Amino acid sequence: MECGLLFSGGKDSGLAALLLDSFYDVTLVTAHFGLTDDWEHAAEAADSLGFPFEAVEMDDDVAESAAEQMREDGYPRRGIQQVHEAALEAVAAEYDVVADGTRRDDRVPTVSRAVAQSLEDRHGVDYVAPLSGFGRNAVDRLVETHLRVESGPSEAVPKGDYETELRSLLRTRWGDDAVEEVFPDHEQTRVVGRNAE
Fold it and tell me: What is the DSSP letter of 116?
């Protein structure tokens, strides 16, 4: 079966790809808005893992709505959640199986049982989250064994996730201060290959 895995180029979605590879024909899919070319970083990461890659451009209205939500809230959670659910919808239109790299202890994005069932029922797909039973420490240990990654501050380690584009949109609409108010400093990872087996 053809599986479209939402892929940022980071360690979680990279590990999810490895876990799904035995069961599905996996394509790594980055959803973006065309605001930047950062999705190309995810394409490079997919190539380093040996998986096919697809970039799916979503409607600008999704980005605008998410940016407004984040600006209003003063934090990214609900805006990121909106975009993630829209990305799942976009992938569900093209694949038999839709997957992501969400972990058990993720705060955002998450996919509730109701959202997963709705996606499956409306699109006739299977939704799978191969890391949903894994906590952060377990993921980190598996990543250390199986993947080569770069890590650093968000601005220094470009990935192909929609967070980068949402930061850009916030900066354009409301300035650098808006980005600093909404997004806390945190470390990002980007996959650069597999460890030798």
Answer: H
Which residue shows structure tokens 């919808």?
A: 89
Cα dihedral sign for 142, 148, 153, 155? negative
Pair 150, 189: CB distance under 8 Å: yes
Closest CA to 146 of 77, 49, 55, 62: 49
The two most distant CA atoms of the chain are separated, in Å, by: 47
Task: Give the CA-trace dihedral at 34, 35, 36, 39, to 10 degrees.
Answer: -40
Task: Dump pLDDT digits (tens) for 37-93.
Answer: 888 889 999 999 999 999 999 999 999 999 999 999 999 999 999 999 999 999 999
| Coil, strand or helix at 152 | strand
pTM, to two decimals: 0.93
Whole-number Å distance between alpha carbons of 80 and 96: 24
User: What tokens appear for 180 in the block?
Assistant: 């600093």
Count the alpha carbons within 13 Å of 103 in the hemisphere toward its beta carbon: 16
Cα(48)–Cα(58) distance, rounded to whole angstroms?
Answer: 25
Phi, psi of 166 (to 5 degrees): -65, -35
| Strand pairing report for 2-6 and 147-153 | unpaired
- The architecture that CATH gives domain 2-194 is 3-Layer(aba) Sandwich (3.40)
DSSP string, 80-109: HHHHHHHHHHHHHTT-SEEE----TT-SSS
The residue extents of the domains of the chain are 2-194
